[in-house]
Amino acid sequence: MSQSSGSHSSRHPREGAYTAEEYVRRPDHIPQTGQDESEKYILALHTDPTHHQAVTALRNQHFPPNINKLSAHVALFRALPGSQLPVIQSAIQHLVHHHDPFPISTGEPFLMAHGVGLHVHVEPATHIFRTLKEQWNGFLSKQDQSFRAHYTIQNKVQSSVAQKSLVAIRSGPDRFEGSTGTVTGLSLYLYDRGYWTLKHTYPFRAEKEGERAPVADQSNDDEWPPLGAASAPE
Questions:
Q1: What are the angstrom distances between the C-alpha of 28 and each of 57, 139, 145?
Q2: Using one digit for the tens of pLDDT, what is the confidence trace for 91-119?
Q3: SS3 letters for 14-46?
C-alpha cells in the first residue's frame, strides 16, 4: 500500500498545483527540527466515499475553479517533517490499531478571511490530534500546535463574494443540507513543492470482531478519491 516518497507512477499521479508553481511556506508552517526538511507530510482524516463526495461537490460549487485542485479534506497536521517519518508512521500505526471508525457530520458554514468554511462535528478527531501532538510536540510547526475541525469550501476570494456564498450555502435555493458519514482511518500525504501525493492510508480497526475497515484502493481513485494537491494548507 505504501508508495515511495520519490515515486510518481501512473497509478499514483501527482495532482496539479494549487496556486503558484513554487510556494514558500511561512515561518509558522515550518517544522521545528533545527534542520531544512526536504520532505514534509500532511495527515488527514479519511472518510467514506459518499460523505467525501458530498462535501467535495459543495467545494467545487464555490471554490474558484482556476485554483481548485484539492478535494474536501480535514487535515490534522499540515507540516510533519520527513526526518521524523519513522516516528510518525509508528505512532499512526499504533493509534489506528487501537481506534474504531467514528461518525463525522457537517455543521454551520462560517466566514473565513478570504472565503467560507464549514464546521465539522468530529470530537474523536480532537482526541486523536491531542494524542499525536503529545508525542510529536518537539518537532511540530507553530501551525500544527492547534486543530480546528473544518472543511474549506471557498478561499482566495473577495469578502463580497464570500458573503454571497455564505448566504447561498445557508439559505439559497441550492443550500447545503449537510452531510454525515464515517471516518474510517487516517491518510498520510507527501507535500512536494505544491503537490500532495498519497503516501499511505491507515484504516482503523474493525468495529466488530472479524470485520475490517475499508482500505484505500490506490489503483482506483474513483472508488476512494485522494485529497488531490495543494500548495497551501487549505
A1: 31, 12, 10
A2: 999 999 999 999 999 999 999 999 999 99
A3: CCCCCCCCCCCCCHHHCCCCCCCCCCEEEEEEE
Three cell numbers, residue 116: 467560507
Task: Express each pLDDT in 183-232 by its tens digit.
Answer: 999 999 998 766 688 999 999 986 434 455 444 333 333 333 444 443 34
Q: Helix/strand/coil (H, E, C) string of the chain?
A: CCCCCCCCCCCCCCCCCCCCCCCCCCHHHCCCCCCCCCCEEEEEEEECHHHHHHHHHHHHHHCCCCCCCECCCCEEEEEEEHHHHHHHHHHHHHHHHCCCCEEEEEEEEEECCCCEEEEEECHHHHHHHHHHHHHHCCCCCCHHHCCCCEEEEECCCCHHHHHHHHHHHHHCCCCCCCCEEEEEEEEEEEECCCCEEEEEEEECCCCCCCCCCCCCCCCCCCCCCCCECCCCCC
Task: Compute the average pLDDT of residues 135-157.
Answer: 94
pTM of the model: 0.78
